[in-house]
Amino acid sequence: MTRSEILQKITEILSDVLDEPDLKLTEASVSDDVPDWDSINHVKLIIGLENDLKIRFEPEEITGLATVGDLIDLIQKKL
Amino acid sequence: MPASITTLPWLPAPPEDFASRCRALTAQSANRAAGIAFLAGFGLSAQQSLSLSRAIKRVQGEDLAPFARFRLGVLASATFDLVIDCIPAAAARHGVVAELLSAPYDQVMQQALDAESEINQARLDAVLVAVDHRWLKLDRALLGGSRDERVADALERLGTVVDSLRQHGDSTAILQTVAAPPQSLFGSYDRRMRGSMRAMIDDLNRGIVALAEETGSYLFDVAALAERIGTDLWFDPAHWVSYKLPFSAECFPVYAEMLGRLLGAIRGKARKCLVLDLDNTVWGGVIGDDGLEGIKLGEGSARGESFLSVQHCALALRERGIMLAVCSKNNDDVARRPFRDHTEMVLKENHIAVFQANWTDKPANLEAIARTLNIGLDALVMLDDNPAERAQIRAALPMVAVPELPNDPSQYTWYLMTAGYFEAVSYSAEDSARADSYASDAQRAEVRATSRDLGDYLASLEMMIRFQPFDGNGRGRITQLINKTNQFNLTTKRYKEADVAAMEQSDSVFTLQVRLEDKFGDLGMIGVVICRSIGDGDVWDIDTWLMSCRVLGRHVEEAMLAKVVTEAKARNIRRLIGRYIPTAKNAMVSEHYAKLGFALVEESEAGRRFELAVDDFVEPHLPFKAC
Asked: CB atoms < 10 A from the CB of B139, how many?
């Protein structure tokens, strides 16, 4: 998957989680920019990504993420 | 090995546009309740469950009869939000609109004890106490001293929660049994070691069952669910340490499904009657064609034992009070014969409350069964090996539960019993007598003709029909059909393989082998026609016309006639002669030619003769795809 495909996947899952069909994300997006992107919705995003992409994140990997771009970096390493 | 229970394999896969159908469900929608019931009937992932749960939440203020409402509180010792997302969708599958109220993470004791808490103030119908071994402090072995006290403490904490919810919130608790984590300290010796986690959790679970009895709480057997899935898969250490998820995310939909059943049972929505198809569901083979000696049933063969276990399962259900009925495309007397005369049959006619063996479509018969037993269609479960019949029933009567079945009959009972249609929250002597209280005399119920529109259903099967003259490849199967088909067989003429081979070469014989495929699979060769040229060579006498009963009601006959007429015209044939020669088994086709528009020209003891002028034939619109 390319970075833009991964970004699209993240956007799709998060827009499902937040019930926000028009959600727009960029690589620079951070959770504070997006209304309702709280810790529980973040868990839903991570679990959704794990299920859809058939990957698993390790506990420490998740904690250091700041931007959507960081998450894409991490996913790219796993695919 | 059966499919994993976590994917809900007894439910059909949702349509592609599932999410948009969920979004389309609003307070303004007509048939909101039917829409919810339809969408809940699929095997949903966690994400799909969330879409449906949201839709239900949007419309839960509206009239949603016949759904029952259930206001459910959740006190959880872990992050339960993702599980809760799945619950309304699963409850809807069991006739319940669940409105949920959950307390914040790990506020179990505080919420229960505080009379002013959100949960207690809400006066809920029930409160799920979703705690596990960790909250109960049984998450490590205790080798010295106070292990019995540790279990007693855990039970006392639970007892306090139950009593407080009753006292302050006027609510009944739903208690969970506790799954034991997979890791052992001593190996097999854990079983004998009273302070091992396994031994303590065993004790705890016995105590929880007793507590539920004493306090009138409901019991949700989570330990049994985890055991079925396997505790190595049930527990997910990474998700526990990272997010405090109570168990593996893969298990959320099935956990919700099990809870939904319980809510349905509490609201009296459990199903009451199991309706059985016969051929290849209750015995192997087709009784009308294979006969009493030919069907597979009983010890000694894998297939025979598989069907025997279906019968034992049905009988066990009847003994606990579930009514049994039969709905089969068959002649009545033929279908009853195994019940009367087959020595391996466990099921007898007197176990069957209503016995519908006829050639009318199954939805009409299911309506007749429900009417006769005076129960709703939503109390019926239909077990049927034929995917096209299942699809037809679901399309016509979405309130009837129709489990998917795999090809292998040894798994039928797993699918039927795993689907959880007969959940109970109590059991009494009255319940067990219920099946007997209906006169179980295998009565025939009157089927009312309905003008059900099956057009969409047939189109949805995406059928492809293929015609070929007899050839070497088909010869074996053609010969088999000619010698085996008893019911849909107009003349019951039998030919040896050499005769069939000779027809391949003959100029005066026109032959067809017919194959059918639909989206569920290839049904193989399902029809054979032999026409003999007679007179001055402008008449075809239809010597043989036979079909597999599996494809009845799909307009295959019409398609076959259309093909015969097309070929006849190409050869300057003016007339077709069709004959019906009655036998003990082929009464179902006595009107075959009349239905196809042939005129009756002669009738005697020996049979009927019909004719059709080829030019009078008008090809009807038929539900087949070009191939």
From this structure: 12
